[in-house]
Amino acid sequence: MNTKISISRSDKYKDDLIILSDKNNLSWATDFLSESEEAFLKSAAKKEINFVFIPNVDRNVVVQFLKKSENASYHKEDVRLAGNEILQTLSNYKISKIEILNQCEENNTLEYVEGMALGNYQFLKYFNDRKEKENSLREIRVNKSAAAEKEVKDLIAVLEGTCEARDLVNEPFSYLTAPQLSKEIQKIGKASGFSVQVFDKKKIEQMKMGGILAVNLGSIDPPRFNILTWKPKNAKNKKPIVLVGKGIVYDTGGLSLKPTANSMDFMKCDMGGAATVIGSMSAIAKAKLPLHVIALVPSTDNRPGLNAYAPGDVITMYDGTTVEVLNTDAEGRLVLADALHYAKKYKPELVLDFATLTGAAARAIGEDGVCFMGTAEKKVKSDLDESGLDVYERLVEFPLWREYGDQMKSNIADLKNLGGPAAGMITAGKFLEHFTGGEYPWVHFDIAGPAYLKAANGYRTKEGTGVGVRLMFNFLKKYNS
Q1: Mean pLDDT of the chain
Q2: Which of 147, 182, 206 is the last residue of a domain?
């Protein structure tokens, strides 16, 4: 993460200062501003402006006006966006350290810091002039009156996890092959505190994980199956919660080569689901959440070379199901299917999978939400929906009616890997449901829309967004076993 976040225990404000304020209550101004500055601020408050920058010899003061929305979800998001909005001004004045002081009736300081820190994220690894391109902001200090130390530590954990997920998505395939992804997971695990086990190709072959092996046939790089484990002594749950993430580090479509113009240009993002669960595990471990959580990340690329699997092939999956491959670009569900079957060995309390699975999901609700569906009880789905609103990674539930499953029946095998021309995100979900075997509660998240952006959207920076990490952390932090 580009930005250090800390708690200020002093009430002597020597650093540059951002004061969050309501326009209709500026009584605090006398303590911080001169008479002329206070008069200027009160005049500005009557205008349609969002913030006032007041330069000073000792320190600069930015007053950010926050509007109260009756909708709690919208209000928190507006505060995050306000935190992102001020970044350009801070950069223009080369401000490197800022302290946040909240003078609003409602305390949304941490949401403001969240928007600032995420908006300040940069991926500059491959620039020769990266020092010149770096944003000036280095440290955000939160006044002790605004948040408890544990709250700030949890925020740091989830922001770092989100930025780690963004880094992974932003890495090009020339660096982030499946074996390299495993090394990155091990590095993050060591820094965060979760353990990592990696199955190599020989082990995957011994286990007969046919979905992963089929997709990998066209690649010069071997596949990997990664198991990430966080099991604290004070874990509330006797049975683990399992996260599963699609780890297709690059997707050409295989022999069903992607036909759309420029559609391969950003296919390094097809491991966005893997990035979500890796970032989530990092946040969970750093925050020391009292839950036993396991993440499974099946990983390979999908290429048309060597002895690549072909449309019309029949493959045998890890659970013994035979699948007729009608399109090699529907590969994500094949690797996820093996992982979902593997999850049964843990007798999990709940399984949640994340994947940039279908263009249909993106077409259905765009970049502003996540399609989800599953067999988990209504309480779990309701809690997920609430967390989605809380962090503004909103969820839209789609049905898993049995008729969609009929579309996945093959004439020559148990299943086929492609449904009809409509409801592609649902038929993909029905395919995955088969491999859960009804043995555990399960929810599938298709993050194809918001996982990778071609233009920044507020604090969701261009390219990898790390979507799902904040959602998972919020949900699991409140999870009652």
Answers
A1: 96
A2: 147
